[in-house]
Structure formats: structure tokens, C-alpha cells
Amino acid sequence: MRYNIALLKGDGIGPEIVDSAVRVLEKIGQKYGHEFVFTPYLIGGAAIDACGEPLPKETVAGCLASDSVLLGAVGGPKWDTLPGNLRPEKALLGIRAAMELFTNLRPAKLYPALKDECPLRADIVENGFDIMIVRELTGGIYFGERGMREGKWGEEAYDTECYSRMEIERIAKVAFETAMKRGKHVTSIDKANVLESSRLWRKIMHETAERYPDVEYRDMLVDNAAMQLVRNPAQFDVIVTSNMFGDILSDEASQITGSIGMLPSASLGETSRGLYEPIHGSAPDIAGQHKANPIATILSAGMMLLHAFGLSKEHDAIVNAVDAVLNAGYRTADLSHGAPYLTTEEITDKILEQI
Ligand code: NAD
């Protein structure tokens, strides 16, 4: 098969880590008989420097015409003093909106080999954990009606949480389909003891669960979920939740893995295309020093193979190669604690050897 992939390398370490992921995809292509055609487009500070705007029209058109999009990261001190609508980060919201991406998939996996990086007690994370957070991305309180008004005690501000059946049904479907490809267990997180929007959320999750008899399902209140994530993270497989709860819980989950350079993400819409990117930023402090950990971006490319192209064997080959390299004790600078470490290119070579 032939797949057209738009590459948005961006700024800082973006080009280095995307180059590593491209090498891994090329190796996968050779081994499994696929052709990946890569077309780079400008985004972020690099686009501002070249054409005066963070998200040029050609970039949006190129992404919409591609089969999938791989993004490095944008931003850096050079562009920090520009007005808000001209900042590199503005391009991220722009491209997500243009591609109509309503789901954010954020895995939080603790590799047994990296147990010591986890801030939780050793006995809690004895066997590692592997959670996939499915966060609704374009609805809820971040997009609801808001405003300022005069209230009983003077000036007041309000934001409203509103979810439609359509929005909940489509995110529920993503969560259950994702669980079918993993541990077949979904936890839906809400605040149904207080919020009307959560009660509709829960009702529709239950309706959806009936259509997936192979998936074990449970509800959990968000306050309990925040505790359970640090008390026993291994109990979770897929978590599905609203925009604001997902924003908070996905950061909590990523912190307990202890390694920002390892965590991939995917943003998905109605089409299979999607946008795949590491959760970290452009790390300008280490750009050009061959110190960046490319694994988050390599795993993002792996998520692309699974979610955009349905290539599960190929996805597993990448995940297993990363596992093997970590188990063999190889580390990048961010995980080396001052000991000798491999450069971005060297750790990529080790991963290629394992595929
Ligand atoms: P950051 O994630 O770029 O860096 C935080 C720290 O983690 C730094 O010390 C950095 O060196 C380290 N780090 C991050 N990724 C790493 C990797 N792959 N390997 C090794 N070390 C890594 O966050 P920041 O410093 O707050 O932001 C830097 C720039 O990135 C800012 O301009 C910010 O706006 C932007 N940003 C972009 C995105 C994105 O493109 N999606 C996300 C967050 C921040």
C-alpha cells in the first residue's frame, strides 16, 4: 500500500525528532511492503520566518489532501514577543480546527524498564501501567456559552458545560473501538452525581456499551478517578472523558510516567486521517544538540499506523522495538541521569535494529 504523509517538522527539536520517525517508518515500509510518501510543510516559527504567518494556506491544504499528518513541535523564544494571533502555537489550534479533530488520544504508559522514573512508590508500579485516555476535544465548557454579568453580589463570570447526543455518541464510539484494539476495558469518567451534562454523557455511554458486549465497562466519578490514577494506575485500560476532565487527568497520567520525551498522542476526526504528535514542546534548550529523545514522535508514528492505516502488526513492531531498546538499557540524555547516553540518531539506530 502507498500512504501520503504530511510532515510538519516545526521548530526547535521538531525537525530532529520527525527525521527519526521518518527513518522508522521507512524501515517499516521496507519490512512490510508499504510505500510511505512524505511531503514537508511549514508550520510555527519556521513558517513565520519563511512567509510571515504560522499556518500558511498551503500547509492546511497539504494536510487535508494527505492520508495522515505527523507533527514535531512548534514555538521558541525567537517568536515569544509576537502578538497572540501571530505566535507559532496559534498554528496548532488552527490545524486542529481545519482538520475537524474532535478526539484526543493520549496514552500514558510506564515501561517496566523506566520504573525508576515514576514518582509513585515502587510497589504501586511494580508491573508498569498502560492507559489510553480518550478525551473529547471540541465540546464542553471550553466551547460553551460564557460571559460576564451583574449578579446578586455584583460582577460575576460564567462558563457553561454543554454536550449534545451527537458529540457524546461519536467520542463513545472512538473509546469502545479503541478498547477493542487493546485490553477491552472502558472507564467513563464524569460527574453525574452533580452535572446534568454528565448524566446525558453517562446515559449515552451505557447505550454504547450495550453494542460492545466484549468490552467490560464501568463509570467513575472524576474526583475518585483523580485518586485512583495515583493509587492504582494499572487498573485502567481505556479512559473516556469530557474536554475539561480529560485535559486535567491526561496531564496527571503523563506525569506519573515520569518521562515527557516518551509520550505520543493522536488527534482524530471523522475521517481516518488524524494528526499525530508527541505531547512535549519544541525543547529549544536542547535543539540542535542531538540530545532530544525521539521516542514520543516514533510512537506517534506508530499510533498513525494503527489508527490512520489499520496496520496493527506494524504498530506492534514499533512498540516492541522501543521496549527492547529500553530493556537493553539504552537511554537518551533526558533519562540518563548524568550517565553516558545515546544521541537522537544513535537511539533511532538501535530502534531500527530491533524492527
Ligand atoms: P517543552 O516540552 O518543550 O520542554 C520542557 C522540558 O522538557 C525542557 O527541559 C526540554 O528540554 C525537555 N524535553 C521536552 N521534550 C523532550 C525530548 N523529546 N527529549 C528530551 N527532553 C525533552 O516545554 P516548554 O519548554 O514549556 O516549551 C518550549 C516551547 O514549546 C514553547 O515555545 C512552547 O510554547 C512550545 N510548546 C509546543 C507544543 C507543541 O508544539 N505541541 C507543546 C508544548 C509547548
Protein model, in words:
- There is one protein chain.
- By secondary structure, the chain is of the alpha/beta class.
- It has two domains: 1-101 and 263-355, Isopropylmalate Dehydrogenase, CATH 3.40.718.10; 119-256, Isopropylmalate Dehydrogenase (3-Layer(aba) Sandwich).
- It is 39% helix and 21% strand.
- The strands form two sheets. The chain has a ten-stranded mixed sheet with strand order 2-1-3-12-11-4-5-10-8-9, sandwiched between helices.
- Strand 6 (146-151) and strand 7 form a beta hairpin.
- The relative contact order is 0.16.
- It binds nicotinamide-adenine-dinucleotide.
- Nicotinamide-adenine-dinucleotide binds at residues 13, 73-76, 89, 92, 260-261, 277, 280-286, 292-293, 296, 334.
Write the layout of secondary structure elements.
Blueprint: E1 2-10, H1 14-32, E2 35-40, H2 45-51, H3 57-65, E3 68-73, H4 90-98, E4 103-110, E5 129-136, E6 146-151, E7 154-159, H5 165-180, E8 185-190, H6 196-210, E9 216-221, H7 222-231, E10 238-241, H8 243-257, E11 264-268, E12 275-278, H9 295-307, H10 312-327, H11 344-354
Parallel strand pairs: 1-2, 1-3, 3-12, 5-10, 8-9, 8-10
Antiparallel strand pairs: 4-5, 4-11, 6-7, 11-12
Helix pairs in contact: 1-9, 1-11, 5-6, 7-8, 9-10, 10-11
Bound molecules: nicotinamide-adenine-dinucleotide.
Structural class: alpha/beta
Order of helices and strands: EHEHHEHEEEEHEHEHEHEEHHH
Helicity level, as a percent range? 25-40%
Share in β-strands:
15-25%
Let me know the average pLDDT. Answer: 95
Number of helices: 11
Gyration radius over CA: 20 Å
Oligomer status: single chain
Number of domains: 2
Shape: globular
Main pleated-sheet profile:
10 strands, mixed
- Which architecture of the largest domain would the CATH scheme give at its second level? 3-Layer(aba) Sandwich
List low-confidence stretches.
none
